[in-house]
Automatic annotation (TrEMBL):
<keyword id="KW-0813">Transport</keyword>
<dbReference type="InterPro" id="IPR003593">
    <property type="entry name" value="AAA+_ATPase"/>
</dbReference>
<protein>
    <submittedName>
        <fullName>ABC transporter ATP-binding protein</fullName>
    </submittedName>
</protein>
<dbReference type="InterPro" id="IPR003439">
    <property type="entry name" value="ABC_transporter-like_ATP-bd"/>
</dbReference>
<dbReference type="InterPro" id="IPR017871">
    <property type="entry name" value="ABC_transporter-like_CS"/>
</dbReference>
<keyword id="KW-0547">Nucleotide-binding</keyword>
<dbReference type="InterPro" id="IPR027417">
    <property type="entry name" value="P-loop_NTPase"/>
</dbReference>
<dbReference type="GO" id="GO:0005886">
    <property type="term" value="C:plasma membrane"/>
</dbReference>
<dbReference type="GO" id="GO:0005524">
    <property type="term" value="F:ATP binding"/>
</dbReference>
<keyword id="KW-0067">ATP-binding</keyword>
<dbReference type="InterPro" id="IPR050166">
    <property type="entry name" value="ABC_transporter_ATP-bind"/>
</dbReference>
<dbReference type="GO" id="GO:0016887">
    <property type="term" value="F:ATP hydrolysis activity"/>
</dbReference>
<dbReference type="Pfam" id="PF00005">
    <property type="entry name" value="ABC_tran"/>
</dbReference>
<feature type="domain" description="ABC transporter">
    <location>
        <begin position="2"/>
        <end position="249"/>
    </location>
</feature>
<keyword id="KW-0472">Membrane</keyword>
<keyword id="KW-1003">Cell membrane</keyword>
<comment type="similarity">
    <text>Belongs to the ABC transporter superfamily.</text>
</comment>
Amino acid sequence: MIQVEQLHLTFGAGTPLENHALRGINLSIPEGQFVTVIGSNGAGKSTFLNSLAGEVIADQGQIFIDEQDVTLWPTNKRAGLVARVFQDPLAGTCEALSIEENMALALKRGQSRGLSRSIRSEYRELFRERLSRLGLGLEQRLGDRMGLLSGGQRQAVSLLMATLQPMKILLLDEHTAALDPKTAAFVLELTRSIIEEQNLTALMVTHSMRQALDVGDRTLMLHEGNIAFDVQGDERKGLDVPDLLALFSRNKGEELSDDSLLLG
Ligand SMILES: Nc1ncnc2c1ncn2[C@@H]1O[C@H](COP(=O)(O)OP(=O)(O)OP(=O)(O)O)[C@@H](O)[C@H]1O
């Protein structure tokens, strides 16, 4: 469960480059809900995810995860609660390390213990079991360097790594955008099944309005650092891309000028 109250964040406050990126976001997401997040370039989507992950700390407002006030917690303290997968398949893994070393690091996320002691036979079995569900044969390649894997294989492993240890909140920042359509569909289906199996609360940023409606339980649109609309349940069912555009115009009193949102 995520509760966000009056969240504000300004970059470069008091300088000529001052940018009020988050402007009083209020949001409540129940446990197990899968929320898709859309919005034009610069709307504040990544900044919002960064604030949930603890990578940036809000200037005002509060964030609660499972009723704990995590507003001032740094990233490492939130590691047992929040995990992320980024757009760039290279971002979530270390290419010089093997698949099993990467997975061992993921298992130790937020802890200070070293890597060498962590790869034990019991973990290998767990890694093999998780990798085998991908159907990519990676369970036979535990010792291969991550750098040998394709972008889609790496992104699938990143997703497994993010969800390897118990956690509550999964943040996906356009994690399929750099993949070809077939691989993107595979990673998206994997995402869906992991979220469902582990009953995770998830936010997925996408630049495709179509994908935002096809996936998950609820769709939010951010605009200029705040929520322009928020649809779920019966209201969301049956909505099409033009309906989202109309919803935006109705709520904000302006037309959406960013065509990139219609992609996909
Ligand atoms: N570290 C930073 N320092 C200064 N300004 C920043 C920083 N990070 C983001 N911003 C600014 O905050 C605003 C929101 O950026 P953010 O990256 O959250 O947008 P976004 O909705 O994710 O956009 P995109 O779809 O282009 O990724 C933008 O104006 C951006 O330039």
